[in-house]
Amino acid sequence: MPHKRAKRSVREQQRSQKGSDLAPSQLQLSLSQEAIPKSLSRVLNAAKVREEWRKRKLEDGETEEKNGTKKKQKLNEKTHSKTKTKSIMPGESLQHYNKRVETDMRPLVKSAVQSSKLAIRHAQRQELASKSKRDAVEHPMPSSEPRTAQHPGRPTEFQTLSTSTPRRLNDIAQSPPEFNHLPRGVESSSKVSKTKVEQRDGVISLAQKEMMKQEREKAIARYRELRAYGKNDHIEEEAQD
After folding, report:
1. Residue among 125, 82, 121 at smallest CA distance from 104
2. CA atoms in the 13 A half-sphere facing the CB of 213
3. Which residue has the higher pLDDT, 169 or 115?
4. More confidently predicted of 65 and 86
5. Are 19 and 26 in contact (CB under 8 A)?
6. Is 85 within 8 Å of 100 (Cβ atoms)?
7. How many Cα neighbours within 13 Å face the side chain of 111?
8. DSSP structure class, residue 179
9. Is 38 inside a domain boundary?
10. Is 60 a member of any domain?
11. 3 occurs within a structural domain
């Protein structure tokens, strides 16, 4: 079989027939005609590759300016993209078409919203500036000059009392304080008690008063009976002793 390796004896026989240290045959390529790797060929032929790349770009629609900068012209691509967004593609559903249109129109909508916000802010700033100018004209700021006193004879500061005896924190009180005059809104205890009694009298009816009197008399009679019963028991105990 050709894909299998021959025996060692056969290989040694072939090697002895061919010999060793022979010159390269015509079938074998020389070093000058040997293929070069692509990475090395790109380095050696960089200028040629660059020229080919420029020609290809010029054919696609790019132009070179005098100063060496490149200006890309993609009018065909723009028109193609516009037609794509406007019209629905074959085999495309409405949902995917709506999403594609939204993604294409999103930057335009965003820029429009930003421009409108900037315009609103500019208008608000102008309104604030005009209002501040009007307020300054209608209500001018007061001057920084000191005011003249309306009543020159009156004292401007509160009076302070100076006592010879110093105030101490841990002084011992010899007697409770006496109040000769009650504070505002406070009435004496006698007046308060009278008003309370009057209020009670006004609240309790006559029938309730009679019932209370009867209950009071009953309680007194029972108390007297208990006292008499206790005295009799005490006398009997003393007699027995």
Report:
1. 82
2. 7
3. 115
4. 86
5. no
6. yes
7. 5
8. -
9. no
10. no
11. no
* pLDDT of res. 49: 83
Query: Which residue has 């045959």 as its token pair?
Result: 25
3-class state of residue 85 by DSSP? helix
> What tokens appear for 226 in the block?
């208990």
Neighbours of 101 (CB within 10 A): 13
Q: Please give the Cα distance from 27 to 133 (Å, whole number).
A: 100
Regarding beta strands 63-64 and 70-71, do their DSSP bridges make them parallel or antiparallel, or are they unpaired? antiparallel
Q: What are phi and psi of 77, to 5 degrees?
A: -65, -40
- Domain count of the fold of the chain: 1
Say what the pTM is: 0.24
Gap between the Cα atoms of 124 and 120, Å rounded: 6
User: Residue 229 sits in which domain range?
Assistant: 205-241
Report yes or no: 19 and 25 within 8 Å, Cβ to Cβ.
no
Question: What distance in Å separates the CA atoms of residue 171 and residue 211, rounded to the nearest whole number?
Answer: 57
- Host H or E run for residue 70: strand 70-71
Residue 217 resides in a domain = yes
